[in-house]
Amino acid sequence: MPIRDKIYFASDFHLGNSNYHAHTERELRIVRWLDMVKEDAAELYLVGDIFDFWFEYKTVVPKGYIRFLGKLAEFADLGVKLTFFKGNHDMWMFGYLTEELGADIISDELIIERGGKRFYIHHGDGLGPGDRKYKFLKKFFRSPVCQWLFERLHPNLGVGIANAWSKRSRISNGKKTDRVMHQHEWLAEYSRDVLTKEHFDYLIFGHRHMAMDVKLSDTSRYINLGEWVYTSSYAVFDGKDVKLLAFERDLELMDFTAALTVGH
Ligand SMILES: [Mn+2]
């Protein structure tokens, strides 16, 4: 029996995004990663935007992802604890993955303590100052009224609209401008804010599509998990420390430390 003592974190697979071939390659890459993780994982945290679009109708779920979901079923059967976070692309996860996989579904942040270390985990959307338009949309999209209305649309139409909407988002438009735009990494700023009220050793997010490991103090780090469309980054906690790694390629780490120290 292998010893299961590691905790893995990954986010932003955006499964379903892009053409079928690229999507299949990505799903197979994720499955290879899960096969590795399976060996020693006690827990797996999928920190949002795992699906490029997800909606659970009363009797229907979106097509696809068979190999991915099958692998997660294996995890569930092995007793590995699964936790999904709602992202801005897949906020409409309700009871299906809990029923099928015993997974916990987290709507906002989750605070856990493991090996004496404190973790703050959140997908990362709608945090910090500004972006009022998105915060309003998030509230609307998550409202029972909006969900009820969407469920009234025929899936061919509803999912079609959702996919068109999703294509307009950052993931399909490339990420280069985003890298240049952010002199200050706002999730690091948000993390600093959280730390003024409460101590955390690790503040872990996704959403930004840039792998980052930023030291905020001697005992706290902001970690961004990156994404799996262009790269394949993930984090692992071995009971003592968190490492940010890449699967089957070199890790492309964004270094915002210099920018962060300016003016603070
Ligand atoms: Mn996101």
From TrEMBL:
Domain Calcineurin-like phosphoesterase: residue ranges: 6-209
Pfam families: Metallophos
GO molecular function: metal ion binding; UDP-2,3-diacylglucosamine hydrolase activity
Entry keyword Metal-binding: yes
One GO cellular component term: membrane
GO terms (BP aspect): lipid A biosynthetic process
Signal peptide: none
InterPro entries documented for this protein: Calcineurin-like_PHP, LpxH-like, Metallo-depent_PP-like
Keywords linked to the UniProt accession: Cell inner membrane, Cell membrane, Hydrolase, Manganese, Membrane, Metal-binding
Protein name: UDP-2,3-diacylglucosamine diphosphatase
Protein source organism: Mucilaginibacter ginkgonis
Organismal lineage: Bacteria, Pseudomonadati, Bacteroidota, Sphingobacteriia, Sphingobacteriales
